[in-house]
Protein 1
Amino acid sequence: MDMLKRYNFFIDVLIFTCGLYSVASLEDNELKLITIGTDVTDGLRRYLRSTNKYDLDAEVFGIGMDWKGGDVANSAGGGHKVNILKKELEKYKDQENLILMFTDSYDVVLTAGKQDILEKFKKFNARVVFSAEGFCWPDPSLAASYPEVKSKEKRFLNSGGYVGYAKDLYEIITHRSIKDTDDDQLYFTNIFLDETLRKKWNMKLDVKSELFQNMHGAQGDVTIKFKSDHSYAYNVITGTTPVVVHGNGPIKPEFNRFANYLADGWTTQNGCQACKEETISIRELKDDEFPTVLVSLFFEQPTPFAEDFLERIANLKYPKSRIDLFIHNKVEFHNKDIASFLEKYNDMYRSATILMPSDGIYEAAARNWAVEVCKQKNDQYLFSVDVYAQITDPETLIDLIEQNRTVLAPILSRPYKLWSNFWGAVNKDGWYARSEDYIDIVEKKKIGLWNVPYITGAYLIHGSLMEELRDIYSAENVEPDMAFCGGLRKRGIFMYATNRKILGHLVDYDNMDTSHLHNDLYQIVQNPYDWKLKYIHENYSQSLELNRTLVQPCPDVFWFPIVSTKFCDSLVEEMENLNQWSGGRHEDPRLAGGYENVPTVDTHMRQIGMEEHWLHFLKVYVSPLQERAFEGYHSDPPRAIMNFVVRYRPNEQDRLRPHHDSSTFTINIALNTPMKDFEGGGCRFLRYNCSVTATRKGWMLMHPGRLTHFHEGLVTTKGTRYIMISFVDP
Ligand SMILES: *[C@@H]1O[C@H](CO)[C@@H](O)[C@H](O)[C@H]1NC(C)=O
Ligand SMILES: *[C@@H]1O[C@H](CO)[C@@H](O)[C@H](O)[C@H]1NC(C)=O
Ligand SMILES: *[C@@H]1O[C@H](CO)[C@@H](O)[C@H](O)[C@H]1NC(C)=O
Ligand SMILES: *[C@@H]1O[C@H](CO)[C@@H](O)[C@H](O)[C@H]1NC(C)=O
């Protein structure tokens, strides 16, 4: 029996055995929740989710009406609410047993059912109970007229929540006339502060938040608690468990965060319950039935791994014939990536709108433009992705659509970091603030669908919003992302962020070095995760499994897959692009001594600015393999002065005479393929009369440098052979 059922059972027994009047009478009363919502907003949907959850009878007045009560979030107003109620409540005024509970809707969540609400109401011994808060608003001069309260209690009336008998409430609401633009809180305050009227209707304030928790100014007072598969709000100051939680005033983001958990939306026992609600399914559809999507891609600064980004966009599992493409590129640097992407895929998409640097469009204008295009094309969704947001899961677009939220971002973070594409909270100036649950969400200790105040990088927007979002990215003195999120918050449109599945990650684009041919090669330190994905051999880690026998083509010569084909090609191209091959002479000004005993035609890593990166590579990727091959030898970190690519070809240098290396161990990575790129070649170890000729691109030979492993480079008879050599620990 869960807690709620047990509780109801207990009440039933009480009624049966004792016939207690005050408890028994609970059963006689009807409870109806009433609220006003002129638009069906995300907030109203959230309110209704909570009333449905607790089987509450809720009636929404005013749908479709023009709101005439002003901007109540920021100034006085709200008289329109009273006038709507005047009309709507007339039908209830004679129902003796009817208890009405009014709350606002956009910023309210219910956390309990009828039994609980009536029980708590009865304890007041009042006909009407108003919620209370710590601010005397809108007329602070009335503060002194309020009855005194104890230090932990709230003294002032808030009209966002009240409960009472229909008859009394109707009388209060119709007691005086009020203009739509007058303040409804002032209206009720004036009645409450009139002692005669207060007594007449036996009005009380919920000073301890037994029923109503207004969160403005009381943020620290409330916390979320969990009991089995239920969540509830707990007021730590008064020890109460309020049933109506109201994010009144300026604390919407904090309230939204609370509301993620309330009404069992997320519980410690069952995780995200709200995630399973209101979802849709599209993956069974035929290609031409898929919703149309505007996929808009933004290149606003030089960013590493852009070609991979584009390839991943192209790999999204979604019919391209249902995708309109929009690209804004602000930096020349990315022209090449985009051109080759378009060459490959452009024709497959439904349409493409491409803005290049030469078009001179600013970021905000481009983002607004995408909204316009989405509207024009009548696309059902807009999927906006920035180049630094790597979408690695091909199902991402389908997955996001199926979660069916108005605005939804996949949570992406920088690998091994807490940096992500959402904020859990904002401060009063609209800037980043860390929420209590931020780290748990980034680290996936809490998994769910989170209503958050800021998202960026990648998000899906429902197409029906486009009219409302016109020009949303432009605001004075504010970056487009801040303008967008601030605009959504102002409009009461929820931004959700999901970490139910890891759909991708973020690339660090700060101060990207763009001076090379293959700039991503140089990202090993700044973006180790992407670097590994792109440049490390997919079977690299197999060699680290202790149950695996290492490959030894010759005695004490070990052979490992280490780098990707992409790495090999890029490194060779980088070297050829520099085109400063040494002449293979003994005199070598690049060396400290100016003399090379066994010279080759080569280029040093230092010459292409990759020396530091390479030492890092040796430490991260080579050392673990060395420790497996030659147990008990640690070089921490590995040192190497000679790191270079050798070029062998006929009519240049085609071989290397037998020699020792000045190293403890040597690594030798094949950068291309025998019988395809060249003929002949290979390495022969004289002591063992053993050669490795069928070298494998991306595989590394590792052998001791001196004494035992006297070796030579065999003749390359045709084509060009490239190898990457390091003398480790000379
Ligand atoms: C969610 O799905 C329902 C049913 O298809 C649809 O009416 C509603 O507009 C969808 N909501 C969003 C935000 O996509
Ligand atoms: C990795 O190993 C698997 C077999 O274990 C093989 O099929 C695959 O081709 C290897 N990958 C590469 C890039 O060689
Ligand atoms: C070897 O160990 C790894 C884990 O280190 C495991 O995944 C793999 O299945 C094992 N292979 C064999 C052949 O036992
Ligand atoms: C070395 O090996 C080759 C073939 O692998 C063989 O023909 C040759 O006789 C060997 N030389 C010696 C000295 O053993």
Protein 2
Amino acid sequence: MLSARSLQWFYLLVLLSVTTVLAAEETQAANDCDWYCWVEKKINSLEKQVDKITKLLFPDVDNNTSTSIDDNAPNAPTGHPRYPSSFGAPYASITANHGVAKLISRPIVTVTPTGRTPIATSTPSEPKPDVQARAGYRSLAYFGNWDIYGRKYFPQQVPAEKLTHLLYSFADIKSDGTVVLTDTYADTDIHYQGDSWSDSGNNVYGAVNQLAMLKARNRNMKVMLSIGGWTYTNTNKHLDTPASTAQGRQAFAASCVDMVKNYGFDGIDIDWEYPQNTTQGSQFLAMLTEMRSQLDDYAETLVYADAAGRKTKPHFLISMAAPAGDTNYRLLPLGKIAAVLDFINLMAYDYAGSWDKTSGHASNLYASTSNPLSTPFNTYGVVNAYIAAGVPSAKLNLGMPLYGRAFTKTRGPGLPYDGIGDGTWEKGVYDFKDLPLKGAKEYYSKEAGATFSYDNSTGMFISYDTLNMALRKVDYIKQNKLGGAMWWEVSGDRTDKGSIITNVVRGLGGSDGSGIESSSNWLAYPDSQYDNIKNAYSH
Ligand SMILES: *[C@@H]1O[C@H](CO)[C@@H](O)[C@H](O)[C@H]1NC(C)=O
Ligand SMILES: *[C@@H]1O[C@H](CO)[C@@H](O)[C@H](O)[C@H]1NC(C)=O
Ligand SMILES: *[C@@H]1O[C@H](CO)[C@@H](O)[C@H](O)[C@H]1NC(C)=O
Ligand SMILES: *[C@@H]1O[C@H](CO)[C@@H](O)[C@H](O)[C@H]1NC(C)=O
């Protein structure tokens, strides 16, 4: 048996040889492979190596590195209803990636392979000019920091020119209110092609750097940091403590300002799933109010005169992911919350799933009267409830799924089922881009305002929005004067002509004259602790 010390040496040795191998690979990559191909290779080989090292060093660490959901995991939600939303939350799996990610990050950031020159400079291109301000519909999408692993979806692939807002998820919260990024490797450390290995100073890489560069090229896309989500706020209740005291809320708000200031975000999205009683509902409002106040105070310090001599300053955004289940939203002072927030992202999906006794529609517009069991929730009812509670319709963005929820061995919606299928990444959940599955036919229920696929040879029913359904929702958004469309989650979309994001944005930009919102993101972060964010752009 090796001693702990010799294990450490062994570990270092392996890491060094891994990086040397990668260095050689990179030269090759520059010739015959574009950037993501290169990154893919790099991640694949690192994953394999680190897997082995992890198993050797930490035999107790979860062996699963795939993003599969295990409904028997200790942190899996129990009972009905787990509505909404899982947010596709990898509630049983993300920790596995974390273990790996932390290990990978070390060789990449700290070991500079010898004899290697950076392949390009990390100096961002000249930013595009500000966009003309114009009110209009929003198009927002969540982008998960785990997307770069199994899904192999990288920040550079985000359809930035189609989005008014990107919600980068998820950050976690410590009990003293401090906000923390959750995956060092994905968030700040991974070096993409074009990132230098020999910069001087204190620089940030990973998604943070890529998103900053995307912002410079796509001035209408505001990037917000999304804090919370199912795992951190429901499984682990990490917002309960900081939200419960004035001191905790102040510390949390100050930390939100730090995240914006250091990483170059345009604002903060909060996904608390969910305040459990009206006391926590009021604490949530108080927390958002404190955030508003501290972000505004910080914005005051960034006042500058533009080329025409006009005084200008940023408006940092605040939004929330809002529940569609009445047992959750009735605990929130929605009218007051809406007054503090820039907008509300309604999680109008996950209406049905593995937690239900019968199969059902997961993102339907209406309640079915002929088959009520097939529609446990409906968007029409939720939207009306929010508006009745004092939320201006224009602040309400309609959440739409870029995935489907499956039920197997069923005769159709509203009927018993047995199993939920393997899913693309997690059990029971299929990416929109993989649907319909081979052998299945697509159907539309006018009564429920829902589409689904069904395979009559296997009895698999999958509830999801087809492109046509998404376009019907465009009409719904316009007719009800909602604020726009939001998606969970960007990696699930198609990239061809059938892309939901592309077509919905075109639909929202068309006919009724309102079009897509136009307002510039913010690029100057003079107080960032990172030299490359701080020095990238100034006014
Ligand atoms: C992980 O796998 C190794 C063998 O590959 C096994 O010895 C170890 O017990 C496993 N650990 C867990 C937590 O399952
Ligand atoms: C993966 O993890 C789950 C618990 O998180 C465990 O039940 C399952 O057996 C693991 N699978 C493998 C292949 O180790
Ligand atoms: C509200 O819910 C929280 C979290 O479950 C709990 O700690 C607190 O005691 C509850 N407060 C009231 C007044 O019920
Ligand atoms: C299943 O669907 C196919 C194609 O639509 C059809 O030809 C066949 O009759 C159906 N079978 C059953 C058992 O309904």
